[in-house]
Structure formats: structure tokens, C-alpha cells
Amino acid sequence: MGTTTSINGKEIFDLLRDDIAAIEEQFGHDTVSNVAAITEIGEYLRAGGGKRIRPALLLLSAKLLGYQGDGAVKLASVVEIIHTATLVHDDIIDEAQIRRGRPAANTQWGNSMCVLAGDWLYMQAFKIAVQQRNFRILDVLIELTQQMVEGELLQMEKLGKLISLQEHLDLIYRKTACLFSVCMRVGGILGGATEQQEERLGLYGRDLGLAFQIVDDVLDLTASESVLGKPVASDLREGKATMSVIHALERCTPAERRQIETILHDRAFNGVTHADILTILNRYASLEFASKEAARYAEAARQAICIFPDSEFKRALLWAPEFVVAREK
């Protein structure tokens, strides 16, 4: 590839330190409303943290192309607000009790108030985006929001059902990878990317997002609740068949298949334990299969940006897939 990946997480943080601090400030400013409940919910969600990987991608993409204006910080805040709005709605749909080790917002303010707060966050994100006066960016953000809502609706239709690997990949593209891809493309548009450059940035984001979600789904099955910040095997309890489960279902015995189907159908571990499921997944090397797929997408992400000249921002983007695959929560 003709470039070095000798950069680590601390160096990336140092590289973006001032911008990330500016995004946090912008996010806090952008989520203030004259309705107290919206401000309280917005601040609660912001204070819950998160990796801020999506705004960091937008910043790195813009800087990769030499962009130096203040639009990157404003739009990085926009994508984080959109991401936050999706989390609020997801938690209501999934009836989640915990988010990032704290009570989910809907347990604090109730579903009705959180639905409306999520709607407000979406509208606020677009209000800020409009101020950039860039129709190309607006088009990309509108298409993103439609894809994410469609993804949530499709997932609801498939809850408790056995789905194919291709259906699963389509779901995680819509729900996760699409936003990663858009973050990279928006950064590129700000930096005046050519059509080919924008396409490559978008591919990087898509493949990184797929790797991120596949790893997330494996961790949901294998990590501890204290590390995850939420109950283990939440996906199975919610009736969601993820990649390793789909892989095992295509190979297991009828009796094993019934065990998995029972959990997906009942949305509870009734007569089947989490350990039973892990035994099945390990028997068919299904967790290993999913982890290898994540690594394959991570490598594809790295290859997608090989056309860009070497810089500290490119090295940061080359390191990000490694971080995504190796993370433990």
C-alpha cells in the first residue's frame, strides 16, 4: 500500500483533541431548547459519552482533503445528533433499560417524551445542516435518515424470524454502516473531493461500519455485562439473529436449531441458557467466522483509501479499522 500505519489511538486523540472538544461544546449548544425537558434529555445523552467515532471520521475525512473551515465541527455535531436521535428511538423500540452503563433515557423520562425529543433532535440536526447552504450535503443526510428509518422498520418486521446472511448485512448497512459511510462522504464533500475520492471515502466508511457492527454483535454474545454496559445477549432476547447465530443455524442439528429458535421466538432464555447458545456457536466456529468477516471488512476499508497521499490523517484512518476489530466493548 506504500504507507505506514504506525499511529495509535492516543495519537489520533491528540490529532483531533481540539476539534473533539469543539464538537462536545457544539453538541451541548445545539441541543438546548426553550422546552426544559428537551434540554435535559439532550444533556443527559451527551454526558453519556460514547466513542465519538462518527464525528471523528467526518473530521479525518475533511482533513485528509485539506479542509480547514469550521463547517467540519458543525457537521460532525450534526451527525452525532442524528446518531443520538437514533439511539433514543432504538431504546424505546427495544424497551431497553440500560444504555452505556446508565439507565436509558426512556426509563427516566418515559417513552412519549423521548419519542418527541428524538424527533426534535432530528429536526435540529437538519436545521444546523441547512446553515451550511450545501444541497449536496443535505441530500446525503436526508438519504441517510431514510435508510436508517427503513432499517429499523425492516428489523422490526424480521424480529423473531430466521433471516439470511444477505438480509442481515442489508440491515446492518442501513442501521450502522450507512452513517459511517455518510460521515466520510460529508467530510469529503467539504474538502472538495472528486467523484472517485468521495466514492472511495464512502466505501471506507461502509466497510468500517460493517466491521464495527459485526464486532458489536459478537461482543453482545461474548463480553460481560460490566464491560458492555448493558445485559449480555440482548440481541437474542430482542429476537435478533446476528451473523454468528445465522452461521450456526445454517449448520446445526434440528435439536440445536430448535433451541435457538425458541429464544428468538420467546425473546427470553426459557429452558435454554446463554451458555447453551455459546456451546452451539463454538461447536460450529460461528463466533470465529463472524470475527474473520469483521477483519475482512476492516481490511477492505483500509484498501479503499490507498489512493490518497500519505498524511497523519490517512494514517489515522488506516489505524481505525484495527481499533474497531480489536475493541472489547
Q: Can you give me a brief rundown of this structure?
A:
The protein has 329 residues and is mainly α. The chain is built from 16 helices and 2 strands.
Sum up the structure in keywords.
329 residues; mainly alpha; Farnesyl Diphosphate Synthase; two-stranded antiparallel ribbon; 16 helices; globular
SSE topology sketch:
Elements: H1 9-30, H2 36-47, H3 53-64, H4 71-94, E1 98-99, E2 102-103, H5 105-109, H6 111-130, H7 135-158, H8 165-190, H9 195-222, H10 225-228, H11 234-237, H12 243-249, H13 254-266, H14 274-283, H15 286-304, H16 312-326
Instruction: Determine the CATH topology.
Output: Farnesyl Diphosphate Synthase
List the uncertain runs: 1-5
Give the biggest sheet: 2 strands, antiparallel
Molecular shape: globular
Written overview of the protein:
The structure is a single chain. This protein has a two-stranded antiparallel sheet. By secondary structure, it is mainly α. The protein has helices at residues 9-30, 36-47, 53-64, 71-94, 105-109, 111-130, 135-158, 165-190, 195-222, 225-228, 234-237, 243-249, 254-266, 274-283, 286-304, 312-326; strands spanning 98-99, 102-103. The model is unreliable at 1-5 (pLDDT under 50). The protein has 16 helices and two strands. It is globular, with a radius of gyration of 20 Å. α1 (9-30) packs across α16 (312-326). The chain has one domain (9-326): Farnesyl Diphosphate Synthase, CATH 1.10.600. Helix content is 74%, strand content 1%.
